[in-house]
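Subject: Predicted fold for N-acetyltransferase domain-containing protein, 234 residues

User T.R. writes:
Posting the sequence so we have a shared reference for the thread.
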Amino acid sequence: MAPYLIRKYQESDRKWVVGLLSQGMVEHVPATFRHVLKLPRTLVLLPGGALALLLVSGSWLLALTFGLALLPVLWFLAARPWTEYVDMTLRTDMADITKSYLSEPGSCFWVAESEKKVVGTVGALPVDDPTLQEKRLQLCHLIVSSEHRGQGIAKALVRTVLQFARDQGYSEVVLDTTKMQLSAIALYQGMGFRKMGQRFASMSWRLLYVHEVHFIYHLPSAQVGSLKKQVPWT
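User M.O. replies:
I've generated the structure tokens; pasting them so everyone works from the same file.
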């Protein structure tokens, strides 16, 4: 197990970070494809369409061709939300990581470095919602390369965000993931995050019936923390 270091993002890290983002999203496509194959509508469409063609044309070859031709279409649909997410991210907050995450004191972006390579990332941005009564931080872009998983890097990155939130006086840390990312969900729940709801993040996700899951982690307020320090043990 190679040692790793968690540090703030530098501009020289960009190619590694973009590569991790793309790789991390694409690797979810096979699981999403299997999910699509199990949907009731797919189970009706694949055999139903093939059977209808067989009854109309009397050709087994045509029916088989229909089923085989539909599989690439389903793969494309399974991959589309992930590629859309990468494209959207690279046009918005990840277009200029330094400006988005390191220009203000309430936000930050970290990388995990091992053997002079960036093998993990995580970002943190304040939630801009004037209706909120609590100061809330958004955890985003938690990614660890497949070759470096199982070494505690993801947990260390999440702990880095939680400590940053405490230091900056945030009361809550929130994040979004999808139900396809089972290992991420297990990680967050194991670290004390609580599920607070779910929704379809886009029409692409609705079409695939994949929910975006929202999690929250409650932090003691800075005021409560300071009071605890002043109260002697009894």
